[in-house]
């Protein structure tokens, strides 16, 4: 737990806020089944949180013996996924936490490796899921996606997306938070490190946990149970492991407690 209260919160999206990872798995295995192959959780763990193309390259590297090209895989996968995105539901506890943080004026943002078009498909269901639209609406546009080219970001496990999301959310000087100094040096000042330590990241994927810790922030990891059986050799460890966002207690992080 942090030695002082956190002041802002960043959310990954896929598998953390919405139950989209099952769709990713089902669609990928539908395509791979044509070649007698299947994606295991060891393979999937390295894809989670990465930008679309990087995740696909990681996956197909496990199958050098099949004729499936990267472009064909992406085309078929996008077609199948687009049919399902509008129906993907919120995960338990997400609505309660997001609306609670918004009510108490805690700055919040989404930092997702998902493409911008897919973010819109997943979150803007007009009729079938008004609660999902409500939840993403309270972020007031403070959403950074993996293909937002204006930021020049590297994908997770690099820390870029969380640093950019924090900057966009807090409207603070880029040099003060991200650590890009006027003289071009990359050595962080104590002030910059302190800004980073005020952040709390919610993640479900291992690359995202690494990215959050490399950003100098606190990380709550809420993984799919299958991920707990995947060998992990990274140095970065989450600050808290939970089964669900429903188990999160805001007051443990210096945030306002839920109303009775």
Automatic annotation (TrEMBL):
Any one GO molecular-function label of the UniProt entry: phosphatase activity
Q: Which Gene3D superfamilies match?
A: HAD superfamily/HAD-like (3.40.50.1000), Putative phosphatase, domain 2 (1.10.150.240)
Kindly name one Pfam family recorded for this protein: Hydrolase
Q: Mind telling me which PANTHER family this protein's record contains?
A: 2-DEOXYGLUCOSE-6-PHOSPHATE PHOSPHATASE 2, PSEUDOURIDINE-5'-PHOSPHATASE
What is this protein's name? HAD-like protein
